[in-house]
């Protein structure tokens, strides 16, 4: 299991352990966050959505939460097909810090680990995907160099964020949120082995596109 994935599951386990009856269930909140992703190096701007659940530990000025998001944006990278969409569903574990603050500025800071699921994209036809890979052992022509092309999809990353949120006596909250999301790039690896297997393989790696997003959101929450 990769480090990022392991950390996400450990974080979720800690979240529910702290929330067990033995620890006296702490205050909670549910957040719905409609937002907008600004244009970046891989895709155009688009509307987004997140749903998050938090447990609060006021004496520590901390809260921890899990969430799920949805991003669908038109691709604009040279290595992505024109007119195609870049889609993803990040699963997140977030730690939020709410330091002492004046009532008129209820701000918070956060950092989180993200596990990427539901990634869909379409590469431009000009991108080498390995369709011309070859490894011939034809005796008549003699052995040829072997070439193998593979791709490593983005699977994990992190985000940092900040926001302000006012919680009313009714338990409903309203605020603004900014998040910078950085995920591992789509990586292409080309491995070439000489025909006789004498020389070491030559491996080249290249990032096909990177996922680095800025997302501005409205916070609609309920605290209980």
Question: What can you tell me about this protein's structure?
Answer:
With 224 residues, this protein is mainly β. It has a single domain, classed as Porin (Beta Barrel), CATH 2.40.160. 7% of the residues lie in helices and 56% in strands. It has 1 helix and 9 strands, in the order H-E-E-E-E-E-E-E-E-E. The chain has an 8-stranded antiparallel β-barrel with strand order 1-2-3-4-5-7-8-9. Strand 1 (28-37) and strand 2 (46-57) form a beta hairpin. The longest helix is centred in the N-terminal third of the chain and has 16 residues, at 3-18. It is elongated. The two termini are 35 Å apart.
Q: Layout of helices and strands, plus pairs?
A:
Elements: H1 3-18, E1 28-37, E2 46-57, E3 62-74, E4 85-97, E5 107-120, E6 146-152, E7 156-167, E8 172-193, E9 202-223
Antiparallel strand pairs: 1-2, 1-9, 2-3, 3-4, 4-5, 5-7, 6-8, 7-8, 8-9
Task: Report a brief summary of the structure.
The chain has 224 residues and is mainly beta. The protein has one helix spanning 3-18; strands at 28-37, 46-57, 62-74, 85-97, 107-120, 146-152, 156-167, 172-193, 202-223.
CATH architecture term: Beta Barrel
**Overall pLDDT confidence:** 86
Coarse morphology: elongated
Spatial order of strands in the largest sheet: 1-2-3-4-5-7-8-9
Radius of gyration based on Cα positions? 23 Å
Task: Tell me roughly what share of residues is in helical segments.
Answer: under 10%
